[in-house]
Specification:
The structure is a homodimer.
Chain A: E1 7-12, H1 16-24, E2 30-36, E3 40-42, H2 47-51, E4 61-63, H3 64-67, E5 74-78, E6 81-85, E7 90-93, E8 98-101, E9 104-107, E10 111-113, H4 131-150, H5 154-160, E11 162-166, H6 170-184, E12 199-203, H7 215-227, E13 230-233, E14 238-242, E15 245-248, E16 253-255, E17 258-261, E18 265-267, E19 283-284, E20 290-291, E21 294-299, E22 304-305, H8 318-336, E23 351-355, E24 359-364, E25 367-370, H9 371-386, H10 392-405
Parallel strand pairs in A: 1-2, 1-9, 2-5, 9-21, 11-12, 11-17, 12-13, 19-22
Antiparallel strand pairs in A: 3-4, 6-7, 7-8, 10-18, 14-15, 15-16, 20-21, 23-24, 24-25
Helix pairs in contact in A: 1-8, 4-5
């Protein structure tokens, strides 16, 4: 006699939400398949440190299948999900549209860079969502210094040493704050480099940085960035962008060879078949994180548009991803036992963004923390989280080593820009 | 009154030979310019460990300008030297043929992969000379296991798990020996992976592996490899090679999706204007390492064809590169003082190749060492050398950590194959 058929759960995405869901399903009588188009889980909050050559890619990532090696009822497959067919309950994978059927589906595919109708800007202003994105920014950042060193005129050198970061959210703030700090370590190595010619400009369309944070923290972040020499311009809109600079709505032109994009993200196109959507393509999920009308499909992590009790949207950060991923898994377990669906309750862990190497702004509950104290908090929280997938001691040691030495081995220019974008179809050769 | 003009020394290449030359010129009244088309010095003897995902790229490389930060009379420029004009005493750099004049030139540009008239093989059988090469092999190696996991037939799976290494020199032996060791760590992560279906084939055209080594060591290396499960075939010639396998001269066909090339290297094309050359394009240098008829041009490192006292060619290994680079620098210093040119004397430091993670074969003086003892020797020698450019303790710790844990963070699939080959023109965007 064959055993009763087990529920087939498919998870799309190996980020925080996808991993949390898979882990929560461990030891339950379901067969889990997790699909991701990369082979690694990324500790995305530290991606900007890879982009600025502070940490190596391997410091902030692990193979997804290693992270889930003890979840014996989960198999991990490398594959790019092209479409979800909610009627036939299958996902279609890769160019050959291989079908993988599901009884329950958890969509945790995350966000991608968005250029608001100016897709041609991407070539000149790379975004920062994947490891390949970070390596592309690192390559450009380091090449700019090489070009400045070989420049034949002061004007040329100045253009190579002007970095524009577009977008004043946490990613833009952290990226802009780290650039002058890393550049400082270059003084002894680039014979022609004069630190006073470095120019980092942070552009934000809204009237303050970190608009999701408390206004007092926004103001402090601005002061801290300016203290590092970053030029902060709020209330400014980019109207044109090309290989040699950006033009602003007020008519200003900033000549810069290196422009980085942290201004916009949009939902994975996978949500297209799932309604209702908000304007950035996120799914307006039911209280239990399922898709209205499709209780067998859950949308979690950044892709889920969920309102906090005060009516605001809850932020797309790692703790939310962990919580919603685990909640979807819990609802699937409830289904197994015939239990009721419960609404997801957000637990707000606070806001946190670093500025440079030794400062941060944070809010926990109703308390604002800034400066070095906030940075220590940031360090503590991140080490704690990272520890979830790497050996705790080794992470602390590697970090300490990286911070003290600016681990020069990481400052590698590898690969090339061509061919890496659009994101390669990982199974291209099949 | 302006100071007397200083001698302008140009060094092409930031490998062992180029760095040794630059360092030996420190504190002498010359202006040194070192050119390299990458920004990093590579500890090439460990490149195969990056290719097999044992070490991270940053573990075995440092920025050249960091390595030379204390050589204050040396500037480092990122640039691809296209041609040497020995008559006009200039090197021509990058696509725009920027000219850099020299009074003394040290050519240390090294070797590149050679396919003996079958350049089309390169697409299917990547070589292992640069960090980008290693990352390409790493990507293919890891992708093969992903493909095997998703395979729909046993035959398909078997093909993905067959790895062919062509070339039985040190690189081929070290690569082939490491593959089964790393694959062993995958057992717990790939649900469908059966270690007995892994097949690693090492092909060598000559009648023994490590032909430059003592025959007893060749035999021991073969036994050690076979002990790891590697199929060794000597006296076999590849007649055809495509995406799905290789054909041998005896009519055998080996079906394999992943083929790695360690069979041939040729001199950098830069030697073309420098005569006389040997058949692989290396320069038959004068006893002082200069080019016959051009005492102001030195060729060092792998590019120099030099005979040992017994008439054999001295091997292109790191110690030789260090010695010849330093010798060329010493001859330039001698020129400054009107001293005579001296012949370079090779100091043979012995032969050394690892097999897997815990064995090696070595010869020091007239003593053969094999097995674990040789591996400990190998470890000691390499740590000692690596220490020249990284903090000694941190290297030992990182290595120990990597060996014990198979540091999973390194197992990253990044980038894509397209666009990385041919080697990107690093200053393409200028």
């Amino acid at each position: 006699m064959s055993p009763p058929a087990r529920l087939r759960v498919v998870i799309i995405g190996g980020g925080f939400a996808g991993l949390a869901a898979a882990r929560a399903l461990r030891k339950h009588p379901v067969d889990v398949t997790l699909l991701d188009r990369t082979n690694h889980h990324l500790f995305q909050p530290l991606l900007y440190q890879v982009a600025t050559a502070m940490l190596a890619p391997s410091d902030i990532s692990v193979p997804i299948r290693w992270a889930l090696r003890r979840v014996r009822n989960c198999r991990v497959l490398l594959g790019d999900v092209k479409r979800i067919d909610v009627e036939r309950r299958v996902v279609l994978v890769d160019a050959d549209q291989r079908e993988i059927p599901y009884d329950r589906l958890i969509v945790a595919a995350g966000m991608c860079n968005a250029y608001f109708g100016h897709d041609e800007w991407e070539d000149h202003a790379p975004g920062l969502k994947s490891l390949d994105d970070a390596l592309r920014i690192r390559r450009r950042f380091l090449l700019a210094f090489e070009r400045a060193e070989a420049a034949r005129s002061e004007e040329q050198r100045r253009r190579w040493l002007t970095f524009v970061v577009i977008g004043g959210g946490p990613t833009g703030v952290e990226l802009a704050g780290m650039l002058p700090e890393v550049a400082r370590a270059f003084r002894r190595e680039y014979r022609a480099y004069d630190p006073t010619s470095l120019r980092v400009v942070l552009l934000e369309g809204g009237d303050r940085l970190l608009s999701a944070f408390d206004p007092a923290l926004s103001a402090q972040a601005r002061r801290d960035l300016e203290g590092l020499g970053v030029e902060v311009r709020t209330g400014t809109r980019v109207t044109a962008l090309d290989q040699h600079g950006v033009s602003l709505a007020d008519g200003t032109r900033i000549e810069a060879e290196e422009i980085f994009w942290a201004a916009g993200i949009a939902a994975s196109p996978l949500t297209q078949g799932l309604v209702p959507l908000d304007k950035s393509g996120r799914v307006l999920v039911a209280p239990d994180c399922s898709v209205p009308g499709h209780p067998e499909v859950f949308v979690v992590g950044d892709l889920a548009a969920i309102r906090a009790p005060d009516g605001s949207w809850i932020p797309g950060v790692a703790p939310t991803a962990n919580q919603t991923g685990a909640h979807a898994a819990a609802m699937i377990v409830a289904d197994l036992h015939g239990g009721p669906r419960r609404p997801y309750r957000w637990f707000n862990k606070g806001d946190l963004a670093t500025i440079g190497r030794h400062k941060a702004v944070a809010r926990f509950g109703r308390v604002n923390v800034t400066g070095y104290a906030a940075w220590l908090l940031w360090l503590f929280v991140h080490v704690l989280y990272l520890a979830g997938f790497r050996n705790r001691l080794s992470v602390v040691l590697q970090w300490a080593y990286a911070y003290v030495t600016f681990q020069r081995g990481v400052r590698l220019i590898t690969g090339s820009d061509t061919g890496e974008y659009p994101v390669p179809d990982t199974l291209r050769r099949v």
